[in-house]
Each structure stands twice: as structure tokens, then as C-alpha cells.
Design a protein that fits this description.
- The chain is 37% helix and 27% strand.
- By secondary structure, it is α+β, with helices and mostly antiparallel strands.
- It has two domains: 176 residues, 2-Layer Sandwich (Ribosomal Protein S5, domain 2); 141 residues, Alpha-Beta Plaits (2-Layer Sandwich), CATH 3.30.70.890.
């Protein structure tokens, strides 16, 4: 019997955003989504089986060498229970994760986190699981995590039990992103709670669902044609549409700050000067600039010059989640 496994997964930044759930229990999305995994935003997770009487011991969890809060421990235990209830794993486990970027601040740490956890658990599972099955299981922990399993450019439909598929593997993607991290703290309203609030109170929610579905179909065509301008234009518009829905939520979900807006204004100047780049923003204040690979170095230099930017990183397309160690 395998005793431990370590897995690594990249966070992914959605080009067509996921915001809304059609079913809370299965964590199935109300909107289809499409993303680019980034090689600079990673989670490495080690899962070890704990020996002893399972009636007397509990699962344990560390993130970046710190014990998680009670609410996070409850969420993670429930996720392991899902695997146990399906007969995929047995016993209790210790889980240790390390993120290479801020946790819970709007840069998809839950996506890479649950993708890495799902991959590690698959190595300890009682039966062999294929990547589509692992993607579905990752989604049960975090909706976006499903897309981190295949990596590269991945798409996930809004069906009853979706998994993500790879449209372009990482090594063939001719684009990348510069991520501008701004000063932030963990979100006061998490994504799941925010999605529920938007569904219940935003007057724009139904229009957001319709827009996301149209954008998803258009984006798949643009990806197939490798049309950078169409991809960037769609991604930026889709991001703004999602945030419009958020801001109209009651109470308003405003994840941006003054530096977020300043970066968007700077981007319009860069484009006017001939640098083609497009912004997309998840549920947080950080700005991700989508660009051709050849322009990433210039873009990184410009982003670093913007006063207030905490960290700016150049990210190439990230690979599929993988198991790095097992014993």
C-alpha cells in the first residue's frame, strides 16, 4: 500500500470566467470557462497516510507551514470524506501544501491547491483514475481546480458533472501572462459566498450567464484559430462583465483597489504605444496581462515601473498537474 505522495499543480487564470454555481452539492458551474495555466503560480502538496485507529485520530492540514483555520480544516476534511465515501481512499491523512504565491487573495490558489491535492490522492487511491476523473474530483474541491489538471489552455463546460479538457498543451501555447500582484489581504468574501450573493441579488446575474456562454463559444473558435487579438479582446471584455455583475451584487463585491484601476489605465497607454496586451482579473485586485511570448519581457519591465506594484512575474504556460514523488 502506498504511504505518501507529492503532487504539483499550476494555478490557472480564466480567459472566460467561472462565476456562479448551478448545483452547490456537486460544485457544478453555472458558466462554462476557459483558462491558461501559469508556470509561476504553483502549489506542491504532500499527502501522507497516518497510522493508527481512525476512530481516534483526525486528518491534519498545513498550508505554507501553518496550521489552517477551523473553517479551512472543515472544508478539507469534507473533501477527503468525499474520496473516502466513494471508496477511493481509506484512513486518515496529513496534508502539507506550499504555494509559490499569495493564498486566498484572488490568484486562484484554491485551483492549484485542490488540483495538487486531487493528484496526490489519486496516487493513493484504491483504483486507477484517469485525468478526466481526477479533474471532476478536483472540481468538487474548487470549481477552477478542474482546469489545473490538464494545464495549458483548458476548457470546462457547464454540464452536470464536468471535467476540464486541454485545448492546447502548455508547450504549444504561443502566449503568456505578466501577473501584477498588488498589496492585498485574504478576501473578506470568498468566491463561493460571493457567487451565491451574485446569484441571489445582482440584477445583472442572468445577463452574465448568457454573456459567459456566448463568450465561451466565441473563445473556443478564437483559440482554434490562434487569433491573439480576438482572444485578448474577449478575455478582457468577459472579465469586465463578471466584475460588473459583482459590483451590482448587494452588498457590492468590489475586489479591485486603486492600483488595479491604475494598472488598467497604464495598459491603455501601452496599447496606444504599440504593445498589444489585454487585462483579465479574477476575484481579487491583482491584474493579469495576457501577451504574446515575444512581448513578455517588455511588458514585465513596464509593469514593474508602475508605482505600488508589490511583485510582477513573467509566466509562461503551465503544464498539467503531475505526481512528483510517491512511496
Amino acid at each position: 500500500m502506498m504511504h505518501s505522495a507529492t503532487a504539483k499543480a499550476c494555478a490557472n487564470i480564466a480567459l472566460i470566467k467561472y462565476w456562479g454555481k448551478q448545483d452547490a452539492e456537486s460544485n457544478s458551474p453555472a458558466t462554462p470557462s476557459l483558462s491558461l495555466s501559469l508556470d509561476g503560480l504553483t502549489t506542491t502538496t504532500t499527502v501522507k497516510r497516518i497510522d493508527g485507529d481512525t476512530r481516534k485520530i483526525l486528518d491534519t492540514f498545513l498550508i505554507n507551514d501553518e496550521t489552517v483555520s477551523d473553517s479551512v480544516a472543515k472544508r478539507l476534511t469534507a473533501y477527503l470524506d468525499l474520496w473516502r465515501d466513494r471508496g477511493l481512499i481509506e484512513g486518515r491523512f496529513s496534508v502539507e501544501s506550499h504555494n509559490s504565491f499569495p493564498t486566498g487573495a484572488g490568484l486562484a490558489s484554491s485551483a492549484s491547491g485542490f488540483a495538487a491535492l486531487a493528484m496526490a490522492l489519486s496516487a493513493l487511491a484504491t483504483k486507477q483514475l484517469n485525468r478526466r476523473q481526477i479533474s471532476r474530483l478536483a472540481r468538487r474541491g474548487s470549481g477552477s481546480a478542474a482546469r489545473s489538471i490538464p494545464g495549458g489552455i483548458a476548457a470546462m463546460p457547464a454540464t452536470s458533472d464536468p471535467g476540464a479538457t486541454c485545448l492546447i498543451p502548455a508547450e504549444e501555447v504561443p502566449w503568456g501572462m505578466v501577473v501584477a500582484e498588488v498589496k492585498s489581504t485574504p478576501k473578506s468574501v470568498g468566491s463561493t459566498e460571493g457567487m451565491n450573493l451574485s446569484r441571489d441579488t445582482s440584477p445583472y446575474y442572468s445577463q452574465w450567464l448568457a454573456t459567459a456562454k456566448r463568450d465561451y463559444q466565441a473563445m473556443k473558435i478564437a483559440i482554434q484559430e490562434r487569433d491573439f487579438t480576438a482572444i485578448g479582446t474577449l478575455a478582457e471584455a468577459n472579465s469586465h462583465a463578471m466584475h460588473a455583475c459583482m459590483v451590482a451584487t448587494r452588498p457590492a463585491l468590489i475586489y479591485w483597489n486603486d492600483l488595479t484601476l491604475r494598472l488598467l489605465h497604464e495598459m491603455t497607454k501601452w496599447r496606444s504605444g504599440g504593445l498589444e496586451t489585454y487585462a483579465t482579473i479574477d476575484a481579487g485586485p491583482h491584474v493579469c496581462f495576457f501577451s504574446k511570448r515575444a512581448d513578455l519581457d517588455q511588458l514585465l519591465d513596464l509593469v514593474k515601473r508602475v508605482e505600488g506594484v508589490k511583485v510582477a512575474t513573467l509566466n509562461l504556460p503551465g503544464p498539467a498537474a503531475l505526481i512528483t514523488e510517491r512511496s
